[in-house]
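Saturday, quiet lab. Running sequence design on the structure tokens for the scaffold JK sent over.
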């Protein structure tokens, strides 16, 4: 009989225990065989964020945020290894920053100028301009 063993990083456990009932928690499973050391092949970024990821300007698991004071709304998204965005409160992934922003705001909006990298505050558009300058 096959056995399924799931190991969570302590940071994941901390996030799960601190989540409120309204939080959406996304868990990604990678299939591999623990006995022969095989791992799943790494995801290859595609789509609009791929060039930023391939240049090392954007990494998987990077948190993106925005806050619109006038509309009193904010958003949080996480970059996946294949270059898509997981937006808090939504069950599907989004292929582009603008589609992810639209899912939060309900309006057609430029996600490149809306989303900021958590920590340093740069927008995706600023990262894109940095890539163009290289």
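Result came back. Writing it out in full:
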């Amino acid at each position: 009989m096959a056995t399924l063993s799931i190991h969570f990083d302590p940071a994941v456990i901390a996030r799960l225990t601190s989540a409120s009932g309204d939080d959406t928690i996304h868990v990604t499973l990678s299939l591999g065989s623990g006995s022969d050391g095989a791992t799943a092949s790494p995801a290859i970024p595609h789509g609009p964020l791929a060039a930023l990821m391939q240049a090392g300007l954007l990494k998987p698991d990077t948190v993106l945020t925005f806050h619109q004071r006038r509309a009193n709304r904010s958003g949080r998204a996480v970059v996946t290894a294949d270059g898509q965005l997981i937006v808090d409160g939504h069950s599907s992934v989004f292929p582009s920053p603008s589609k992810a922003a639209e899912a939060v705001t309900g309006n057609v909006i430029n996600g490149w100028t809306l989303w900021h990298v958590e920590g340093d505050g740069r927008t995706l558009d600023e990262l894109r301009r940095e890539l163009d300058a290289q």
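Notes for JK: The two ends are 54 Å apart (CA to CA). The chain is about 30% helix and 15% strand. Ask whether to fix the surface positions before the next round.
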